[in-house]
Amino acid sequence: MRIEKNALISNSLGINSRCKLLVNLECNDDLYSIEDLIKAHSKYYILGEGTNIIPPSFYDGLILKVEFNHVNNNNNILSVGASYNWSDLVTFCIKENINGFENLIDIPGSVGAGPIQNIGAYGAEVSRLIDSIDCFCLNSFSKKSLKNTECHFSYRNSTLKNSHYLIYNINFKSNLKKDISYKYNSIQKYMTKNLVNSDNLMIEDVAKIISIIRSETLPNPNKIHNAGSFFKNPIIDKKLINFNKFPEDKLIIWNYSDSLVKVGAARLIELIKDRLIPSKNVSIYKNHSLVLITNGKATQDDVLDFASQINKLVYETFNISLEIEPNIIN
Length: 330
Ligand SMILES: Cc1cc2nc3c(=O)[nH]c(=O)nc-3n(C[C@H](O)[C@H](O)[C@H](O)COP(=O)(O)OP(=O)(O)OC[C@H]3O[C@@H](n4cnc5c(N)ncnc54)[C@H](O)[C@@H]3O)c2cc1C
Description:
Elements: E1 2-8, E2 18-25, H1 28-33, H2 35-39, E3 44-47, E4 53-54, E5 58-66, E6 71-74, E7 77-81, H3 86-95, E8 120-121, E9 124-125, E10 130-137, E11 142-147, E12 165-173, H4 185-193, H5 203-217, E13 225-229, E14 235-236, E15 253-255, E16 261-263, H6 265-272, E17 282-284, E18 291-294, H7 300-318, E19 327-328
Parallel strand pairs: 2-5, 3-5, 4-19
Antiparallel strand pairs: 1-2, 6-7, 7-12, 8-9, 10-11, 10-12, 13-18, 14-16, 15-16, 17-18
Helix pairs in contact: 4-5
Flavin-adenine dinucleotide binds at residues 12, 45-53, 66, 82, 107-110, 112-114, 116-117, 119-121, 166-167, 218, 221, 226-228, 327.
């Protein structure tokens, strides 16, 4: 176990943030050794690569970081350590001809964080790939393996979010049949424009297309500070939407269930963004209105103030409340 005092909390929003203690957990024994440390501190937070967090300037508690980096494929189960980089795993799967991961290429962050918000993109979600998740419970200080159904995955959510479970290993299904998903609107558009034939499309072809689309629409967090989509697409009763200021065809609305629709949050923000009071350190990314970017000088308050300004205007205009997607650390 490596412990660092007053350590930086790395985060893709570029917020200058430190914590009282950063605890790196490197092996099984380390998991069983953290009980005393946790009991001696008032709070803790589990950190992956920090691409989906909004941290404070100082976190007066323990930051726990899992450093399990293995990958083993046996008996149709791919067991992967929580700190393995997600996109590296997708690349590994494509090389090994393991199906189902390809649409999730280039999502930043670690494997361990994937199930927390059920990462998803281009019509795919990680929940479909998971067999079980090996956790260390920070209440009982014992190991617990959760079956897929016990995680209650839904759109950008699971019961693992804000739970006491520290994920150290995920068991993925490595025998899924090839079932290439290329019907997503932007993939279709790309294929039509570039005359890509869907016959004999391979998983690596879809991954390559998605990689290109992502690089054109999303900022690279290593160059521009951001946390990806800042708000979830709201799921609501269509009758509640206020269409007085903008007609229905100006919004992007997908059917979600018999009574609910999912509304494209990026479009809602696009329609109100001219009325926002600019922030010194936070702004909206030019290629994607759902992404907030910072100049590397923003604080947690700067980010949350700008987000709440957006939320207020969206609510006043459409009667829709937006929910912040990244995790706010208090
Ligand atoms: C440019 C960009 C694009 C993105 N695109 C997408 C996208 O297409 N789809 C999508 O779903 N997300 C996307 N994201 C969000 C982000 O990539 C994912 O949420 C990712 O899973 C976060 O991984 P991380 O390791 O950085 O987690 P962190 O940001 O460190 O943590 C995120 C959450 O997971 C918890 N956590 C992390 N590791 C563990 C663990 N081992 N055990 C228990 N809890 C843990 C943390 O406590 C926190 O609540 C994007 C982000 C960026 C910056």
